[in-house]
Amino acid sequence: MADQKRMHQDIETLRKISEPCAAGTQRPSYTPEYREGVEYMKGRMAEFGLEVREDTVGNLFGVLRGTDPEAPSIISGSHLDSVKCSGAFDGIAGVVCALEAARMIQESKKPLKHTYEVLGTIGEEGTRFGQVLIGSQFMEGSFGEAQLDSVKGLEDGLTLRETIRNYGLTGDPAGACRRQDKVKAFIELHAEQGPILENAGKSIGIVENIVAISWLEVSVHGVASHPGTIPMDVRHDAGVGAFELICAVTRYAAQHYNGIATVTTGRLNLLPGSTNCIPSECDFTLDIRTCDEAARADLIRYTVETAKQVAVKCRVEINVQEAVHREHVPTDSHIEDLVEEAAAKLGYSHMRMNSGAGHDAMIFKRIWPAGMIFLPSHEGLTHHPDELVAFEDMEKGANVLYEVIRMLDEE
Ligand SMILES: [Zn+2]
């Protein structure tokens, strides 16, 4: 059985390995603190007899060789980097539970036929480059020489290539790409990052889909003028047009798609942006997420149609562009079934659900069977210093992961 104490030690040690920050943990990729976290994990992997290696872009592996050298690998893990002022569980929980499963395999004295790899990916969060899922996309092969030069640090302006070299690695894409490797399964355990499991009183989430995302960029054009001289019924106020549209779309989503889709305006810009001027321009974003393609299509249709009505009503022009369109990613149904079977066998409460956030698993699903296990996030908090996954849930997660690995190994 999994040992909470070991996982507690790993989580609490990594929590303290942080850049100075106002609160929480801050360990962006390719920093001295990231290196320190990796060295700690290497030590823990070696302590339990795993072969340790880092690929050319900084993904970390702890490998337990299987008894059958021809058998494909089973890989489990998540990301080791963090956002700014983060908690101690996002990503890290998945690496620590994957390592705990390796320790359980070692303690069982019953080696696997398949090689088992514990993975800690680098650059999953967009903290340093504004680009997410870097390490996994080098492994999957869609990132290569081009991204080494095109991806640049948000603060230092250095290219990814320069950053990786300064970190002490070559960055050679060929040394990271695993596209040709046969892999039996990739399993990512992750904090849910939402309140659904906790509210339902369930310990284990079986992820069925990772959400589709549409980013709509909306621009509203009006006419700037004096705020005191233009009567309300003749002005062309770009701000009012934007607010009407945002309220209409979010209300529509809440009425028709609560629990199915989300709509969020996270960025809004008013021009000229002064107290004594009617806004002439307003640009804003609508982030639409859902696993239901019909819901996405309907929300986009509603946005476009409502924009036309609001444009007439508010005497403005409105343009709606879909800047990002990413399909939802169904996880591997066989892995879903195994996670469900393992949770049931262990007597843990569980439910099937979707992931509202993107994860490395959706990248690996392009080339390998990939699945996810979610653990409850206390109060749904994430990307927050108080982020918490209860250690009893970490223990359950590691036990489920171990069972799934055993079942895959015996197939
Ligand atoms: Zn994460």
Automatic annotation (TrEMBL):
<dbReference type="InterPro" id="IPR002933">
    <property type="entry name" value="Peptidase_M20"/>
</dbReference>
<feature type="binding site">
    <location>
        <position position="90"/>
    </location>
    <ligand>
        <name>Zn(2+) 2</name>
    </ligand>
</feature>
<dbReference type="InterPro" id="IPR036264">
    <property type="entry name" value="Bact_exopeptidase_dim_dom"/>
</dbReference>
<feature type="binding site">
    <location>
        <position position="90"/>
    </location>
    <ligand>
        <name>Zn(2+) 1</name>
    </ligand>
</feature>
<protein>
    <submittedName>
        <fullName>Allantoate deiminase</fullName>
    </submittedName>
</protein>
<feature type="domain" description="Peptidase M20 dimerisation">
    <location>
        <begin position="213"/>
        <end position="311"/>
    </location>
</feature>
<feature type="binding site">
    <location>
        <position position="79"/>
    </location>
    <ligand>
        <name>Zn(2+) 1</name>
    </ligand>
</feature>
<keyword id="KW-0378">Hydrolase</keyword>
<dbReference type="GO" id="GO:0016813">
    <property type="term" value="F:hydrolase activity, acting on carbon-nitrogen (but not peptide) bonds, in linear amidines"/>
</dbReference>
<keyword id="KW-0479">Metal-binding</keyword>
<keyword id="KW-0862">Zinc</keyword>
<dbReference type="InterPro" id="IPR010158">
    <property type="entry name" value="Amidase_Cbmase"/>
</dbReference>
<dbReference type="Pfam" id="PF07687">
    <property type="entry name" value="M20_dimer"/>
</dbReference>
<dbReference type="Pfam" id="PF01546">
    <property type="entry name" value="Peptidase_M20"/>
</dbReference>
<comment type="similarity">
    <text>Belongs to the peptidase M20 family.</text>
</comment>
<dbReference type="GO" id="GO:0046872">
    <property type="term" value="F:metal ion binding"/>
</dbReference>
<feature type="binding site">
    <location>
        <position position="190"/>
    </location>
    <ligand>
        <name>Zn(2+) 1</name>
    </ligand>
</feature>
<feature type="binding site">
    <location>
        <position position="125"/>
    </location>
    <ligand>
        <name>Zn(2+) 2</name>
    </ligand>
</feature>
<dbReference type="InterPro" id="IPR011650">
    <property type="entry name" value="Peptidase_M20_dimer"/>
</dbReference>
<feature type="binding site">
    <location>
        <position position="383"/>
    </location>
    <ligand>
        <name>Zn(2+) 2</name>
    </ligand>
</feature>
